Amino acid sequence: MQDAKELVRKINAKEAIVGICGLGYVGLPLVRAFTAKGFKVMGFDIDEKKIVKLNAGESYIEHLDFKSLKAHIDGGRFIPTTDFKRIGEPDVILIAVPTPLNETREPDLGPVRDTSEQISRGLRKSQLIILESTTYPGTTDEVVKPILEKSGLKAGTDFFLAYSPEREDPGNPKFETTTIPKVVGAYDPGSLAASKAVYEAIIGQVVEVSSMAAAELSKILENTFRAVNIALVNELKLLCLKMNIDVWEVIDAAATKPFGFMPFYPGPGLGGHCIPIDPFYLTWKAREYDFQTRFIELAGDINTMMPYHVIDHVLYAMNDRGKPLKGSKILVLGVAYKADVDDVRESPALKIIELLQQRGAEVTFSDPHISFIGRGRHYNLNMTGVPLNEDVLRSADAALILTAHKKFDYELISRSSKLVLDTRNAMKAVKNRDNIVKL
Asked: Engineering a disulfide at 162: which of 187, 195, 319, 355 sits with its beta carbon 3.0 to 4.6 angstroms away?
């Protein structure tokens, strides 16, 4: 068993070089955290455009401060590169790459495998490899470790290995990388000691668990908990629409109970790179044990169908006003997956736009954080956003609110729109408007 004392010493002395594979919504906040504490950081990414923008000090993630990163680049403390031949230089390597689903909602570990292969080619003794990407329990041990050991080095003997799930919440002003407790599970005691030293250098609380699989499952549980509860209120919303009860009023009333209740809110579907995806990693893995996660799969089905329910209720609302959806001009307000971010990953708005277009609607969108929707994993909309002003609102047959950005002028929206279709309760502060319909 290898001795972690020297690596821990280098980490505590800030002599260790930190490598981060994947410079996105997880990787870049890690870069910022480590450079702020005085570490030299190497950032690896296969996207040449990202590296060019980073070196130019240009932002491709709205809520992150790129000025400090540019200063660290100029000072040599942060080195963004596509050259994985340099992967042997860092003492610690964090893997923060996407873990999406394929077309049949099964785990796509391609980015994790590819990154592990790149690391394996340059792996040297005494390096610490930590997977941060959200995945099913067993991935680090069953997928990452064998690939790394193609190098001829052995985990627990020649290099350190651990798993620590990312817990980023883009756009949340209350929490950031350094203030969110970090869960860590490791392959062996030496790997655990080194991993704890790495995260204790930047984070106030490190939570140790007994295994990498336990750490992997902890993240799946966090997001499955949210997905299931969101499915519950989404289903309740559909019932409330039939019963002519305001679901938002019901949730707010229930939330006054000071114990035993946590409010979740309905919407047009799930978005982001975690909640719509992570539960399916667990359901897929469960089948290996001849176990069916019926509760989780039902929740997934409910959430997946929400965009279709939105379309149905858009049709009802248009028909009530004698206006067919085909040929109507629909202005979608907000395409980001959540409020106040510039992230469209898995956004239900993309599916809803596609469904509206399939039904013959003329669709435009406005989003203060996103100016263009290009090609994604599932969509190729190629749409440029329009400014939100009185003329744009008046020219549309309906304004469909899918993301409740704070930058939207809701009074202007209500005043200038023929019809407002609100899936987020964004118009709650606007009173006495008969052109507002909650969906």
From this structure: 195
